Please model this.
Amino acid sequence: MDNIISQLRGFKSQIAELMGRIDIAGKARQIECLEEEASQGDFWNDPAAAQRAMQQLAKLKQQVDTWRALAERIADALELAEIADDDMQIELEAEAEALSELVETMSLQAMLSGDYDSEDAIFAIHAGAGGVDAQDWAEILERMYLRWMEQNGYKAEILDRSGGDEAGLKSVTVSVKGDYAYGYLQSEEGVHRLVRLSPFDSARRRHTSFAKVELWPDIQSDIEIEVADKDIRIDTFRASGAGGQHVQKNDTAVRITHLPTGVVVQCQNQRSQAQNRDRAMQILKARLFEMERARQEAEMAQLKGENVDAGWGNQIRSYVIHPYQMVKDHRTSVEIGNTTSVLDGNLNQFIEAYLRQKVSG
Model:
């Protein structure tokens, strides 16, 4: 029983430290302020602002309640362990094991303290060098990430998908909704490299293919970016895609080109042209927002004398199927010898290692 008590005391101390680090007390005060605002008679005079405030309130409440509930559960278990007899040991051991998993999960979540880590995400995959093999590789990655999202409770919605010439896909853009989607998926942004015997090569030679993953926080109306009408070109076209639920006969799909930067976004999954236009504009603002943030970070890094890595051409992770099986993350040096498992969506070991390195670095 002494070991269980010691373990529970460790959990209590660890959670208290983490709650202080992410300022749960401060978030509780924010909740009080927002609730006070919501009680005012003129709160709903601006429905859009009121809706954003209520969404923020709900998110803060969920976060505070989750942390406080865990702290209370640990305290209750510790109190029981300190007065229990040996007959309770098996039950308390099971509770300590369950709490260990929860503490580990919350410890990882506490690492996600960036401004947008808790937000939804817009996730894109682009085939790179390697021709049809690269387009096939992009589709393999799409399957891998959709499986990871499903396994981890995220809601994925394909916003746009461009099929490959012979197989696979040229690009796909996915909306990912759920707690800390952007924070967790940051580890995946960059170039992914595949080494295998090509199924498209009649000589069955070994090929190396590349695909690029991009990521933006899907903060929608919170993005303070003005896009002038003169700076964009809007084209419409007929939605298409294998098995598309809302494929229309009319030109409902929308492509927006931002002329000053050359950024192109498109959306075809919504039911109407107006809905696709609105969603494409949200994605464009998210991309422009992320570009500006990256520019500012690059300037700051140059002032500090640091090297700024452009990303493309420098793979973050290699997936080898032939002549052996291995997936290696080149940033954290994490290696997994079961490539099939990883391609089935088992990515958490890579994601967690990246988060820990990011915090410690």
